[in-house]
Amino acid sequence: MEAKKTLGESLNRFGRISKKNNLLISLGLGILTFLTAVPFILVCIIAFTDSESIQRNGYRLLPEKWSLAAFQAIFEEGAIFSAFGTTIFITIIGTIIGVFLMSTFAYTLSRKTYAYRGFLSRYSLIPMLFSGGMIGNYIVIVNVLGLRNSIWALILPLCMSTFSIMVLKTFYQMSVPEALIESAYIDGASEWLIYFKIVLPLSLPGIATIALFLTLGYWNDWFSALLYTDNNQLVPLQYLLMKMENNIEFIANNAGKMGMTQTGALPTETIKMAVVVVATLPILIAYPFFQKYFIGGLTVGAVKE
Predict the structure, then answer these.
(1) What is the DSSP code string of the chain?
(2) pLDDT tops 50 at residue 260
(3) Structure pTM?
């Protein structure tokens, strides 16, 4: 069995990339990273900028005056802490349920000895081609399952994805040798034991990828709350932030009709940017925990039998 090598080590071994070209590639990637990060850096700076300074000078990387007014306006809303808790609960529980259901179903589809593998593979592709639509989903969630104003209405609709199932199925077939599973069968291992002790440890990069997709989906979801709940205790963060932004913008745009004259104190532009920061910062903090599994996924197949 050959030792694992990084892509750079393998290429340099065969002389395909010189040190000069490697330096140029690194420089190009550094510039690309900088250009990718600049918009978010600008968003963070604007979020901490005084609103009147933006009205006078426009957007700047070095603002004339710093201010926390936008974040104060957001966190003065007492419901935001409840919304944070709701979103964290939905994201964690939904990700755990989704990963378990999709990974076990994908494992079933990857087993060549399973009698109904072909039928279930074709059946699972139907939702990718023909969606039930918003009305159909609403009828099932509200009328059939009776989940209106339930936390499960914000979890169950997003916990399964045919695309993710197919990704995991392919990953199992590429990363888990069939001979290894057959050896476990000979030793008397059950399907659950094989899954938890053999398949799952070998498939952590693929499962981490699906877990990240689920986490992003649950964290950014506000439409489910709009459809399925009017209970303020179940409002997730994204939906609450969207309502706050719309309310402030409505007040600013209709100040004259409402008889308001001092709307300059409303930090409308900075609140928009502060909303982006509040909504994305937790995901940016969580991403490094998934990164090592992505790197591990790049080396899958580098070990020869």
Answers:
(1) -PPP--HHHHHHHTT-S-HHHHHHHHHHHHHHHHHHHHHHHHHHHHHTB-HHHHHHH-S-SS-SSB--HHHHHHHTSTHHHHHHHHHHHHHHHHHHHHHHHHHHHHHHHH-TT-TTHHHHHHHHHHHHHS--HHHHHHIIIIIIS--TT-GGGGTGGGS--HHHHHHHHHHHHHHS-HHHHHHHHHTT--HHHHIIIIIHHHTHHHHHHHHHHHHHHHHH--HHHHHH---GGG--HHHHHHHHHHHHHHHHHTTTTTT----TTS-HHHHHHHHHHHHHHHHHHHHHHHHHHHHHHHTTT-S--
(2) no
(3) 0.77
| pLDDT reading at 6 higher than 60 | no
Query: Could you tell me the residue ranges of all domains in the chain?
Result: 1-77+244-305, 78-235
For residues 170 and 107, the answer to whether their CB atoms sit within 8 Å is no
Measured N-to-C along each axis, helices 162-175 and 204-220 cross at an angle, to the nearest 10 degrees, of 170
The DSSP code sequence of 225-242 is HHHH---GGG--HHHHHH
Q: Which overall architecture, per CATH, does domain 78-235 show? A: Orthogonal Bundle (1.10)
Q: Output the average pLDDT for the chain.
A: 80
CA 137 to chain centre: 22
Q: For residue 59, what are the contacts with CB-CB under 8 A and spacing of at least 6?
A: 42, 46
CA 83 to CA 233: how far, in whole Å? 8
Per-residue pLDDT at 305: 47
- Number of H helices and number of E strands within the chain? 15, 0
